[in-house]
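Feature request, filed as a ticket because there's no other form

It would be nice if the structure record came with a short human-readable summary line next to the tokens. Right now we just get the raw output. Example of a typical job, pasted below so the devs can see what we mean:
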Amino acid sequence: MNIAVHVTHEAVQKIGGIGAVISGLCTADRYKDFFNGTLLYGPLFDRNANVTARLGKDGEVYYSSIDNFDSDNYHSKFHKIEEDYDIDIVYGKRLLVNEFNVNKKNTVDTILVSINRINEDKLNRFKFELWQKYGVESDRYSSWDYEQYVRIAPAYPDILKALYPDGCRFYHFAHEYMGVPAGLSVLINGLKKEYNRTIFYAHEISPCRGVVEESPGHDISFYPAMYESIRRGRNFEDDYGSQADNYRAELVRSTVNFDYVFAVSDLVKDEYRYFIPHADENKIKVVYNGIPVKLINPDEKLKSRKLLQDYVENLYNYTPDIIFTHVTRLVISKGIWRDITLLYILDEIFHRYGVKGAFILLTTLVGTGRDSASIAAMEEEYGWPVVHREGWPDLVGYEKDIYDYLSLFNARSKNIKAVFLNQFGFDRRSCGRRVPETASFRDLRVGSDAEFGFSIYEPFGIAQLEVIPFGGIAALSSSCGSSFLLKNTLSGSKSAHYSIVDFIGRAKEFSGSGTASAAGTGIDSDERFKIEKSILKSIAGTLFNSLPKDDSERIAGLKSAQECVDKLGWEAIVDQMDLSTL
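Raw output as currently delivered:
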């Protein structure tokens, strides 16, 4: 039996892109053909939850020592482990479903391990071996973020042995730094290679992300400097100093001991090599993410578009000809200021040609979203989401800055208006009564003419591509790893389905002082913004010309997309993984 184990902080709740990857990967038919079973393994973050809710709305709990719940004598499997390690275990199954194709599903085992208490002797022994064998000095780190992922690692091999019969072949997928300690536990315990494969699933390279986000030049300064350093035989620590105090970096560094590294894009592979120049390149495989693929008919496309038009009409009393969307997390890496910069430029073009547009930005800092009662009250009291107010339940933190930027844009723009939905979902319950009655989140994907995603750091970027199967255009930056997938799979006439803004490659054209420096600090924020604006201005006309101007062009775009979109789907991606060779 082949068993895939995904060690992740998103074993139950989707927090970021990893959850989307797991859902898409594990529900692919080719994945299920190879793996006889799948286990999601991670920390139990909340001991206070109700037993029925511990594995989420799509999960069923079979056993929970915290709740003294046991549906079928699982106590006999886990009791000794819990006593030896002084931990609690929650076990059950979850139903994973492809977001856009409910026929793609997979029922998977799920284990959550308590992190509040643990046998200190066993934990300290594990930490000692982390230092002795892999140079990870746990004493340096006081972060609970580090501690919680180390705590789920010592018992990991014993839990697998209790849950699965002898003779199983395990593929341990350590998703990001969070999954690395469990993968190292497999190696520390000396589990037989013929029955175990350790794989670091590199969704990012943490120290590189930190520099990109914190330096004023962001991607425009970092990547040219990185490639120049690689050419000169320099590495990340030559340029930025030792990372020994950065536990994320040190855990990533230890993955050279794994059997394979799955880099989600060519960019991530290059970052990994820059950070760990001695890594065995034969172990590093570029494994792109896939996207949910579901074919629709033209009527569905036009129906979703009409719902989005009606929504804008309800908010601003006009019907847009072109609809832009951006569904994203509200973090600096997403580069939302680039969206707004481009909107100013496009507004002039739209005005010149008498075209009306709308931009729907759906993003929030509130992980759980606002409750429907608060949404209804804000809508009734002051016209949310056209108007926002600072403070809960409305604008919190960086949300205020986004609203201020978009309010200024709306005051100045002639032909494009923007709406800021600081909420999850797209239906009346989540987003108010001005959302058309039958609308859902899916309509934001199906009805969009173009999805923005001009990130400064984006190892892959699934969300940017999700409009392509429905005939929309993915407008993204060259800092998005998915740009490599698009260029490698969609060429010629099919390139009409995406527009890549090459901030990295074209920066020098618009820079007076050059952009590459030894440590990626060659430009300040003012110069970076001028470069960004110049690049966006240079491509705006081409992007405008590629947008569909009527429904016949939209239907033609949908037909063209459906002829090639399978290349972007999870089935094709799993084929390229060639799991049988691992």
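Something like this underneath would help us a lot:
The longest strand covers residues 101-114.
Residues 2-203 form one domain.
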